[in-house]
Design a protein that fits this description.
Mean pLDDT: 75
Strand order of the largest sheet: 1-2-3
Radius of gyration: 17 Å
Structural class: alpha+beta
Oligomer: single chain
Helix content: 40-55%
Largest sheet: 3 strands, antiparallel
Length: 219
């Protein structure tokens, strides 16, 4: 990603975060924006094989395949080269969520629950269900989903080997994109002020969650 595109992405993410003002104070933006960026990235990564996975789900259900046995098969339908299964069995995507504004909260929950177990655990760790309820009650949920649907986090734009990194810089929580072989500082895309030292783990959104030193895990 070139500098101009990177800056445009940074500006877009921050503009969306600012729409949370009211129900959320700036230090709380991360409660929504971190899981929302992850969700949008997964939405973009899985988009090319979404229909193939849904067809595979129907076929396996017709065979009365136990859910536990379906995990590896659905992972292969989504991407046969991926080590850890990553797929979504719900009919939803960001685009389809916008087609039913009256039920966007329960549909979003259903979308998240349709992810493979490792991906679903990320949103449980973020306690994102609490934020969905708050966003819906404050009439912000549809607006945020609609805005995030316009953010292109597809691998063609951000390489699938890249990480979305959440790190602490002084008293700011920084979101940035960096390739997996980069260890030093990288330009941020979105600075979310946080008084907390505990910050979310690095997420390799192609391979899912990696273990990192214990002093940087989610608390």
């Amino acid at each position: 990603m070139n500098v101009q595109a990177h800056d445009a992405l940074k500006a877009k993410i921050w503009e969306i975060a600012n729409r949370l003002r009211g129900p959320y104070r700036p230090p709380q933006y991360r409660l929504v924006m971190l899981p929302m960026v992850v969700l949008r990235r997964l939405d973009c990564v899985l988009a090319p094989t979404k229909e193939a996975v849904l067809e595979r789900v129907q076929a396996l259900q017709a065979q009365q395949m136990p859910e536990a046995a379906m995990d590896k098969l659905l992972g292969k339908a989504a991407d046969p080269t991926r080590k850890h299964p990553l797929y979504n069995t719900s009919p939803y995507s960001f685009e389809r969520l916008l087609g039913d504004s009256e039920n966007i909260a329960p549909n979003l929950v259903a979308y998240i629950n349709g992810f493979s177990p490792i991906a679903r655990a990320i949103f449980e760790r973020f306690k994102f269900a609490d934020q969905i309820e708050k966003l819906d009650a404050s009439n912000r949920l549809y607006t945020i989903i609609k805005a995030m649907a316009e953010v292109d986090l597809h691998p063609r734009r951000i390489a699938q080997g890249s990480r979305v990194v959440f790190d602490l810089v002084d008293d700011y929580l920084e979101l940035r994109v960096e390739p997996t072989d980069v260890e030093g500082p990288a330009a941020g895309f979105g600075m979310l002020k946080s008084p907390h030292r505990a910050v979310p783990a690095d997420l390799d959104l192609a391979g899912m969650m990696r273990r990192i030193p214990s002093d940087r895990h989610i608390k």
